[in-house]
Amino acid sequence: MPEIRAAIVPFLIVFVVACASSETPSESTRRSNDAVSTAKPKAAWSEVSSPLPPYPRAENLAEFQIVGTTSFRFFADLTSVRVDADRVVRYTVIARSASGIENVSFEGIHCESREYKVYAYGSTDRTWIPPRNPKWQSISSTSNNDLRNSLHRYYLCPKGIPHRNAKDAIAVLKGGRPYFDDFRGF
């Protein structure tokens, strides 16, 4: 029994010293709360109202490529591209099928949240039709031929943030090739 006491005594001494020098949970919490209260709160994101652009014209279109295999060709109306005060990149996109049928939409990508929203669809009489229930939707990163994933990752949101201005985004779209070197879709 004396051997056990002799072995336990040093352990107890170390344990008592360690406990005495550590912070209590309330001290730790108070210090964390002080740090939080002195940090600037992050401003809540708010979407700005954005007018619809003129309907796209052929001379303003730039073709670009997306990741994966698709029979569609994709075009951006360069006159519609903008980076608004809410940091949403808005643009008109045309998806043209092999038979020449076009799907036209005016959309926005919120780069930081990796979401998109359709503001209007193009009609055959070259006017805009608002969607029934416009809402922000997640951009899939798993689809092989997802248009919005390609726009987000390779053209409009380098490293998940929007371009500084429309001019920079237009330059990338005009090139028809993606912004990053890791693009493997061709």
What is shown here, in short?
This protein has 186 residues and is of the alpha+beta class. It has helices spanning 2-21, 25-38, 147-156, 166-175, and strands at 61-64, 73-83, 88-96, 102-110, 115-122, 128-129, 137-138.
How would you sum up this structure, described in words?
This protein has helices at residues 2-21, 25-38, 147-156, 166-175, and strands spanning 61-64, 73-83, 88-96, 102-110, 115-122, 128-129, 137-138. The protein has 186 residues and is α+β, with helices and mostly antiparallel strands. It is globular. Mean pLDDT is 78; it is low at 4-37 and 181-186.
- Write the element-wise H/E pattern from the N-terminal end onward: HHEEEEEEEHH
Gyration radius, rounded: 27 Å
CA-to-CA gap between the ends?
77 Å
Please outline the major beta sheet: 7 strands, antiparallel
CATH hierarchy class name of the largest domain: Mainly Beta
Shape: globular
**In CATH terms, what is the fold-level topology of the largest domain?**
Lipocalin
Characteristic key phrases:
186 residues, alpha+beta, Lipocalin, 2 domains, seven-stranded antiparallel beta sheet, 29% helix
What is the topological layout?
Layout lengths: L1 H20 L3 H14 L22 E4 L8 E11 L4 E9 L5 E9 L4 E8 L5 E2 L7 E2 L8 H10 L9 H10 L11
Antiparallel strand pairs: 1-2, 2-3, 3-4, 4-5, 5-6, 5-7
